[in-house]
Specification:
The protein contains 13 helices and ten strands. It is of the alpha/beta class. The protein folds into two domains: 3-118 and 305-318, ATPase, nucleotide binding domain (Nucleotidyltransferase, domain 5, 2-Layer Sandwich); 128-296, Nucleotidyltransferase, domain 5, CATH 3.30.420. Strand 2 (13-20) and strand 3 form a beta hairpin. Bound molecules: 5'-O-[(R)-(carboxyoxy)(hydroxy)phosphoryl]adenosine (KG4) and zinc ion. Zinc ion (ZN) binds at residues 111, 115, 136, 271-272, 304.
Length: 350
């Protein structure tokens, strides 16, 4: 049973995971989040330097936790994009170096496919077809997926402007909440009334594209509301709860419509924003009502981590997909096509 080492460094998390045959043996995570907080967002060079410091200790940590030596690793997978260029480079170079020195196959994988793959660790193999809603800090995509390792991903819709996580981060900043904004809004929204302010549900009109998203108007609506109301103190909890409700409503409404329209009975909800308590609760409620099976990873596996990259590497290894060459470059803006960065090669492998 091959053991796969996975490395993730696309943003501010240095994640390492060890997976064999769909089972998570261990993972380790270091974050440079605190170093970025005072800038209100991730500073790429700071993130890259932090990855450089953390990568070897995290690999060692993950191996120790799994109770194995580096010599027992049979394949290595690393995020090759998308992400912050300098940050991706660190993990990609580390992954190649481990693969080269061990003489094992290397896979440069797509970060977003990793978000989807991680669910296999907790809920078993994916069904033949599912709708996946990937909601992260940089992406919001509604997809039709089959076999993640060997089949191309079909985009039903993406965001036209801000990603859902980006909207959380920007609205949090507007409200004076700390970075990262998503968890901060989630926290303060617990004391607020989600019906207090009727923020718009972007792109949900009858003439709007059913599976596309747009969150920049919603962010502006929150900014306008804050400008117009001079209450002291500002009702932060109500604003946060109402904004969060609008995002959760919009995301889940479109995801369920995609399941219905494409006769798919499984919804995969993944990425950092899938950690949001209201998004999870509303998705659960609406899926139960519609008879759709909801698959959502536990909160800690929704945000960036190494287990997701190891999980995807493990799927590729088990499917017998041809590994990457070691001259594979990072692609900071890689479009999601499939598990690997240049998805077409997968078909040749079969
Ligand atoms: O997937 P992820 O860890 O990194 C990217 O690939 O971008 O997602 C990070 C995003 C950030 O925008 C963060 O604010 C958001 O996920 N996030 C949340 C929550 N936890 C993280 N958004 C809403 N509620 C949360 N609990
Ligand atoms: Zn991510």
């Amino acid at each position: 049973m091959p053991i796969v080492l996975g490395i993730e460094t696309s943003c501010d998390e240095t994640g390492v995971g060890v997976v064999a045959d769909g089972v998570l043996l261990s993972d380790a995570l270091a974050t440079s989040m605190d170093e970025h907080a005072r800038f209100g967002g991730v500073v790429p060079e700071i993130a890259a330097r932090a990855h450089l410091h953390a990568i070897t200790p995290m690999v060692r940590h993950a191996l120790d936790r799994a109770g194995i030596g580096i010599g027992q690793i049979d394949a290595v997978a690393a995020t090759a994009g998308p992400g912050l260029a300098t940050a991706v480079q660190v993990g990609l170079a580390a992954g190649k170096a481990y693969a080269l020195s061990l003489g094992v196959p290397f896979y440069g994988v797509h970060h977003l496919a990793g978000h989807a793959a991680v669910d296999v660790l907790e809920h078993g193999p994916l069904p033949a077809r599912s709708v996946a809603l990937i909601v992260s800090g940089g992406h919001t995509s509604l997809l039709l997926i089959g076999d993640l390792a060997t089949e191309p991903v079909i985009h039903l819709g993406d965001t036209l402007d801000d990603a859902a996580g980006e909207a959380f981060d920007k609205v949090a900043r507007l409200l004076g909440l700390p970075y990262p904004g998503g968890p901060a809004i989630d926290r303060v929204a617990r004391d607020g009334d989600p019906g207090a302010i009727a923020f718009p549900r972007p792109m949900t009109g009858p003439a709007d594209p059913p599976y596309q998203f747009s969150f920049s108007g919603l962010k502006t609506a929150v900014a306008r509301w804050v400008e117009k109301h001079h209450e002291h103190p500002l009702p932060i909890a109500d604003i946060a709860a109402s904004f969060q409700e609008s995002v959760a409503d919009t995301l889940t409404r479109k995801a369920l419509a995609a399941c219905r329209d494409h006769q798919v009975d499984t919804l995969l909800l993944v990425g950092g924003v899938a950690a949001n308590s209201r998004v999870r609760a509303l998705a659960e409620h609406r899926c139960a009502t519609a008879g759709v099976r909801l698959r959502v990873p536990s909160v800690r596996l929704c945000t960036d981590n190494g287990a997701m990259i190891a999980a995807l590497g493990d799927l590729l290894v088990r499917a017998g997909v041809t590994p990457d060459r070691l001259d594979l470059g990072a692609d900071p803006s890689a479009v999601l096509d499939g598990a690997l960065l240049n998805g077409h090669r997968q078909k040749r492998a079969r």
